[in-house]
Amino acid sequence: MIIIRIAEEKDIAEILGIYNWSILNTTSVYSNTPHTLEMRKKWFEEKKAANHPVLVAEKDNKVVGFISYGPFRSWPGYKYTVEHSVHVDKDHRRQGIAGMLLKKLIEAARQNEVHAIIGGIDASNTASVKLHEQYNFREVGHLKEVGFKFNKWLDLKFLELVLDTPKDPIEG
Hints:
- By secondary structure, this protein is an alpha+beta fold.
- It has helices at residues 12-25, 37-49, 97-111, 126-134; strands at 2-6, 54-59, 62-71, 81-88, 116-122, 138-149, 152-162.
- A hairpin with a 2-residue loop joins β2 and β3 (62-71).
- It is globular and about 40 Å long.
- The relative contact order is 0.16.
C-alpha cells in the first residue's frame, strides 16, 4: 500500500537518493552534479519556511517518491503561481505514484490559494507530459534546445494548470 504524506526531516536522505538518481540518469533535472545531504536539508528548510509543501509517497516504510512546489518567478505579481517538481524512485515507476503525488499537491495548492501550477518537463519525457495532461495541465510553451545534457540539446515544455483560487487575490 502506498501512503502519501507530508515529508519529515527523517525522509531527506531518501528524497536525496531519488533526486540524485534522476540527476545522474535522466533529463528530468537539467543538472549533472548530484546534491549533497546538506543541500537537500537546506532545500527542505526553505520549503518549510515558505509554507511550500513537500509530500512523499511511502511504501513499506520506504520513501518511493516526492513532490513539491516553489516560486515560479520572484516578482510580487507572480505570487499566486508556483512551479512544481515530482520524482519517483527508479524501481517504483509506472505504478501510479506520480499521479497520486500530483493529485495531493494540487489539493495543497488549492488550500494555499495558488492560482497556477507550472511544470517544466523535458520534451522527450512523454510519460510525464501525458500524466500532467490527465490532471488537466495544458501545454503553454515549447522551448527549443534550451538545455544541454548527455551530449545533446534538450527541448523544454511548460505545462500549466489554472485553479479557481484564490477567492480574493491581493495585489502586492
